[in-house]
Every structure is written in structure tokens, then in C-alpha cells.
Amino acid sequence: MIYLIYGADEYKGREKARALVHALQKRKPNALFFRITDEDEKNISLDELIQSQGLFERKYIVLLDHILKSELGEIVLNELKSIAASEHVFIILEGKLIKKDLSKIEKHAEKVQEYRKKEAAKEEFNRFALTDALGARNRERLWCLYQHARDRGAAAEELHGLLFWQVKAMLLALHSNTTEEAGLKPFPYKKAKEALRNYSEAELKNRAAQLVALPHESRRGAFDFAIGLEQWILKI
């Protein structure tokens, strides 16, 4: 019988192998346990392990611990049919496997478990930091935040919408005295009012017009949308 445990997450794979060995030993307390690594290949006869029997218990528990890249591993791959038919339990513990070796083992394994490493969740960019940098007219920070957001999968169109919203909020705040007049909530209204000291009305109107024109120009093939937005940022 063959159990295959493999995958990029070798810590979890080893934990599973340890738990499996423990469970088997509990079920068969008289079974002999062998852990074989590539360092043991000259001292181990695979044929003897496959065919021999314990004195008090028919089964052995054999952990083949990362041996497939050794000479013993080649023997294991060639003897999979015999190993699977053996009275004993063989646990093959490996890291990543090439497709050819995996396919060979899967044909004879009783059970196959893969442990993949979970990809780290991409940190979501801070929308408020982006609009705050625009309001503060901090070109370097705004550009860095734009790149940060793009690296984390934010679409250029989404970022364009946030920047346009901030410019529009500043224009609304410029021509109003209350949040009700501006049609904004208190916090963004306050931030927009504070940002007005960094821009003139003419600059805001010009920046808004450029943002409105950007997607149209991009669709006509004048430039790539993401690059066009980046150039807009570098000119604030």
C-alpha cells in the first residue's frame, strides 16, 4: 500500500506524514517503523522491505522521506507496482514533484495528498491615502501610491475614478459653504476644503478636464490608459 504526501508546503506535508505514522502505529502497535532518507540508500534493501515480514506483525510502516532524487528513488519509481502490492504500508513524502513522477505514483497510490503554499493575500491599497496625496499635491507620494495600487491589482480605470472624484470634490467645496450645498459627507468635505489651499480654481478645472478627456483619448489609441493616467499624476 502506498500513501503519497507531497507539495510546496513541506511543513504541512511533514506534519501530515507524522500524524499518519502515529495513527498507523496506534492501530498496529506491533508494526515496525522505518524512516528512510537519501542517506540510507546504501544500507537499505528495498526488496527486503517489500517482501519480508515482522516477527509479531505482518506489516511494516515505511516512511520514504524525500528520496526520489536519489538512486533509491529511481528504484522506488521502478518498483511501484510491487510496493503497492506489498503487505506493508509505504508513505512517500516529497516536496514538489515533476509531472512524470507524480503520474507514475498516482497510478499505484492508495491515497494522494498535495499541500500547496497559500499565496499571500495581496494587501488592498488605501484609497484615502491616494486621494489625500492628490489633495496635498504631493506628486512623489501620489505616484508611489499609484504604483502600489497597480501592483496589487487595482485597475487604472478604478484609480482614475478615485482621482476624478477628488478633483470634483474640491471644485464642489470651492463653490459651497456647507456639506449640504456641496452634496458631500462631512469628512470628505473637510478634506476637500483643506486641499483647496494647494490648487487654484483654474488648475482644478484644467485637471478635471484632462481626466474627462483621458479615457476618450485612450480609446482613440493616442496612448495606453494606465500610462496616460501616470503622466497626469506626474504633472500635478
UniProtKB/TrEMBL annotation:
It comes from the Bacteria. Residues 126-236 form the DNA polymerase III delta subunit-like C-terminal domain. Signal peptide: none annotated. Residues 3-101 form the DNA polymerase III delta N-terminal domain. GO terms for molecular function: DNA binding; DNA-directed DNA polymerase activity. GO terms for cellular component: DNA polymerase III complex. GO terms for biological process: DNA replication. This is DNA polymerase III delta N-terminal domain-containing protein.
